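Can't paste images in this forum, so I'm doing it all in text. The chain is below; anyone willing to post the predicted structure tokens underneath?
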Amino acid sequence: MKTNLTRNFFVALLVSCFSLAATHSLFAQGRVILNEFLPWPGNACGTTAEFVEILNMGPGPMNIGCYILTDGDFSITIPAGTILQPGQFYVISGQDFLPMPCGNINANVTVDLNWTTCGCTSGVIPTTGDGLFTDGGSANEQVVLLNPSGAIVDAVIRDFPAEASSSITSSSAGGCSPVTFDLDNMGVQYETIGESAGRANSFARKTDGACGWLKDTQQSGGATNNTPGEDPDLDISMAIIEEPNCGGGTAIFTVNNSPPNSYFPIDYILGYDSNGDGQFTSADTYSTGVDNTPPSLTIAGLVPGLYRINIGSAEGCDFRDFSFMVGPCSPLAVKLISFNAVQEREKIKLTWGIQNTNVLNEIRIEASMDGNRFTTLGSETVKHFNTTEFFSYTVNNLQWKYFRLQLINKQAVINFSNVIRPGTGGLFDKPLKISPNPVYDQFNLEYFSLSGSRISVIILTAGGQTAKKLQLRAEEGYNRFIVNLSGLKKGIYFVQVTDPLHEKKHFSKLLKQ
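Text version of the structure:
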């Protein structure tokens, strides 16, 4: 578990405007990359059929207005206000239209930006001879994408040593501020393609967003590079764990490559469909993070809703996309009818009973010393598929103070039991309880604390904005507070209780009438 990275995640997620340190490829709402380029067209297509394809991998839209594309000799400035939607391609070429097969082997391509006529270049790009890119031979052409301030977004090169660059001042067309730069003096970290030179071949990522590149006559400008049977190099599996009270969940992304640590640190951009329209637009909420604890990235404290994430490896490529739902609540059909822990001399005996075990595949027994970080002690495979079945498990080490069960059904959906400890007489760490619900002006909030601590209570709107925030002192055991909601509009809210001392976070849905 990556609690060090995720304990404050949802608070950060709900901040719609945030600052982010510039990295090679990580930005606020989406990840823009160089996905394919054709530097040396065949004679039948002509020099101006050169093209560069940019892809926004998402999860959200990106304003690529005033971004700068350069080969070190010329620069091309994308018009201000150009919005690239998630999953959308942007083709830049020396002509308006690329007939099949000059830009795409299967289709004609309408170009998004023509550098010959746009008036947005640093100089006149030749329409014959070398054109934008040095023509074939041993040329080690580089392609670099800069943001409006001149910071590097993505950079690829056919091979080293790189061709010498010169000082360039980008165009101010369309209200963009000119930027002066020289690639030779920028310490560019290039992604090396490593393919041989040759005309009438595009250089394309093996799959969209992958590190590996291919020299391919089957160019796919303006379309995906993903082909049947071609899998991404970065193998990631996803698991979504819902909280027992259906108040939210946790997303776990595990790197299955060996060794997984070679792909870390992992960075990510997460989009949350905060307005519930099923789309990811600038009206939604985005957050970013970095994880350096292989083999998995864990994002906890996710409220119910639709999410989309883009994950990137330490290589600055190998990007993967996932869409997933947290909720609507789908608890297991099983019912935990009892769960107890009793200390017997130097051992602890766990017993539990479950109804409808026929939908279960496995039960894992987990233990913790602090009530937060859990370790799997063992598992029970469900064999008898009775309507009701009872189990027991003996723990031989008294260092473990807290216990829970991980219930896994046949579809690999995971739910957790509540937490218990010896001597509590059964269910111990119940989720927070709110009553009444629906509520008019105030409600009772019941919260169980492992020990005395100061907790944060945040009332969130359905769109993720903070409507009310409280700091309360919780004593060990059950606590009961009265929370006043007078002045808040009618509607759906979420109650978030954060216990920093124990690194815990709980959510519950609330309807104000």
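Confidence is low (pLDDT under 50) at residues 1-27, 424-429. The helical segments are 3-6, 9-13.
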